[in-house]
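Lab notebook, bench 4. We co-purified these components, and the gel suggests they stay together. Before we commit to crystallization screens, I want a quick structural picture of the whole thing.
Request: model the full complex, all chains together.
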Amino acid sequence: MQNEAYVVETVSVDSAMLYFKEIICEEVLDQVQHAYLALKTLEYIIDLTPSYNSILIQYDINHYNHLSIKEAVLKQVSEYRKVTAEKSHKLIEIPVDYSKGIDLERVAEINNISTEEVIDKHTQTTYRVYAIGFMVGFAYLAKVDDTIATPRLSTPRDKVPKGSVAIADTQTAIYPQDSAGGWNIIGHTDFNDFSSFEIGDRVRFEQI
Amino acid sequence: MIGFEVLAGGLLTTIQDLGRQGYTHLGITNSGAIDEYAYRWSQKLLDNHEGNALEILLGGLKLRATAGATLAVCGANLDFRINDKKQPIWQTHHINKGDIISFHQQSEGLRAYLAVKGGFKVEKVHGSYAATIKEGIGQKLSKGDFLAFVPTQTKETRHVPEKFISKYPKHLTLNILLSYQHDFFSDEQKEKFFSTDYELTPQISRMGYKLKGKAMIPSKGGIISEGITFGAVQIPQDGQPIILLKERQTIGGYPKIGSVLPSDCFKLAQLPIGSMVRFREINIEDAEKEMKGFYDFFKS
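Here is the predicted assembly.
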């Protein structure tokens, strides 16, 4: 990776942001994942918050200032690249009961295909974790095949049950707890290990 | 059992400390005492290290002690009483078995901290005592709960020196470091931002404070979701700023104009609905000096 592919900016008195190219794609995600793994071993870091094309770095201001953190981050990320050739390839498999997908028909109708085709398309793709947030353990998985991409419900539901597998536009996700939400529910899973998700992980859904 | 019996939980009373660190990558927010200044004084008065305290919003809390203890109360003036007798705050008190501790009507500030020497004996979750109700971590205190502590009695009474006691003005200037997407805002927009008196709306919580004033118009309404710091000033679609605090979402996609200095956020957290705030730009060197000074003060 070229040096100009990322930049470190000061965002608050004790935080810096490592920005990559402003685009959501797998190539950028790979860069974020690598940098995240590199920064996990840097000392005096309080919190790392990776997302689609950035990593927020909160640091101990007794050890770094806004200049020295930039230097440390750039050094850590570039050196880590030199010694680490292989990528992290964690694969998480999620069993899904699609018969519990209350919006499965809606997704099929909007896309003019059958519900079986929706299930096929959803299970054929290996997704990546692009970000975790909104609520604890809510992993944004992409990219959903264009033939089943579906906009959010116009009115969000007051309660989406925990374990709901859902689609919004070209992203898919599993609700880690009961919550309000506007994503299209296409199935249900008993998977419960939401703290195992990390940025860049691979995820596949299996019909049961 | 030794500790406090909760006779009334109050509006929103939770256990807090300096917050949960190292879990934002899972979407777990930092949480922690929203006014760290008052919280840190409650700990300093008692020589508590890695302790905790009750964060009490607007009163209504009533406790009965089953043993003697030394406690400290700092922060908002919520008409703190022992056995229905009004007591001064920003100092330690000694209580005996059977004493009733209560907080009533708010007169200054919103949140008081009640700490006991040695801390409350509750379980840490992910390395912290801090309750984050929306995440299912901890709960608000309610009648019938029991808060255990280790009985202690120190002879000495300690006070926060007068000059260090917080005043809660109705007008506050917030120092802000321009950062994040500040270039989404033209010079004219920034000029408006720095010359507007913003009012605190009823939407103020541990998550953030929503302001009302002249609307800010960014050149782009959204960004790719990214990490949000304590004090970040987010400008959503209606153009009214939101200052994000301890229970903020970990990532978000609205543009942010910068970050308010943490020590100013601690003051902000004590201001009631209808208070006025104004922003003033601070540079990173001054911000660092200010916050290092803040943390150094409480180290000694």
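Chain B has two domains: 3-164, 171-299. Worth comparing against the SEC data before the next meeting. The mean pLDDT of chain B is 96.
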